[in-house]
Design brief:
mainly alpha; two-stranded antiparallel sheet
Length: 163
C-alpha cells in the first residue's frame, strides 16, 4: 500500500477513537496542545466526550479560520506562511537545482503517526486495566501491523518509489 493509504487509516482510527472519548495524549514540548480533541476544537468541531455527539461545527468562527484569514495585523498568517513557503522553495530550488517537496510534509506525517501511537498507547492502557491478556495481544497485533506496514511504505516513498 501507499503512504497515503496508511495515513488515511491512521487518521481514521484516531478520529474514530476521538469520537468515542479516547484521545491522544496531552501537551507537546512547545506547550501547544496536541490532543485530537483540541485539534478538532481548533477547526470548530466540538464533540461531547460523554455521549460522543457532535455539539457544534462552526468553521468561520473557529480559532484556525480566525488565525489564518482574519488576522488583525493586516497580513494574515496564511498569507505570510504561503509567502515564506514559496520564498523558501525558490531559494532551495535555486540552491539545489530542484525542490524536494517530501521534506515539507514530513511534519504533518509525523503528527498523524504520533497521534496514532498516542491513541494506541491509551487503548493499551485501557486493555491492561481490564486484565484481559488476549485483548492486549490483539490490539498490539493490529497496531503493530499497521505501523510496520507504514514504516515500509514510508521508506519506499522517501526513497523515491510509490509517489
Amino acid at each position: 500500500m501507499r503512504v497515503w493509504s496508511y495515513l488515511t487509516i491512521m487518521m481514521g482510527v484516531v478520529l474514530l477513537f476521538a469520537f468515542v472519548g479516547v484521545d491522544s495524549p496531552g501537551e507537546g514540548s512547545s506547550g501547544v496542545n496536541t490532543t485530537t480533541s483540541d485539534a478538532l476544537n481548533s477547526i470548530g468541531l466540538k464533540i461531547n466526550a460523554s455521549n460522543s455527539k457532535v455539539e457544534s461545527f462552526d468553521l468561520k468562527n473557529s480559532k484556525f479560520y480566525l488565525d489564518v484569514f482574519k488576522d488583525n495585523v493586516g497580513i494574515t498568517a496564511g498569507g505570510l506562511l504561503a509567502g515564506l513557503l514559496i520564498g523558501g522553495a525558490i531559494i532551495v530550488g535555486l540552491y539545489r537545482g530542484q525542490f524536494e517537496w517530501k521534506i515539507v510534509v514530513i511534519s504533518f506525517i509525523l503528527w498523524i503517526v504520533a497521534s496514532f501511537i498516542g491513541v494506541g498507547a491509551n487503548i493499551i492502557q485501557y486493555a491492561i486495566a481490564t486484565g484481559e491478556d488476549w485483548l492486549i495481544a490483539v490490539i498490539c497485533t493490529i497496531y503493530g501491523t499497521i505501523l510496520v506496514g507504514f514504516l515500509w511504505s514510508f521508506i519506499d516513498w522517501f526513497a523515491g518509489g510509490n509517489d
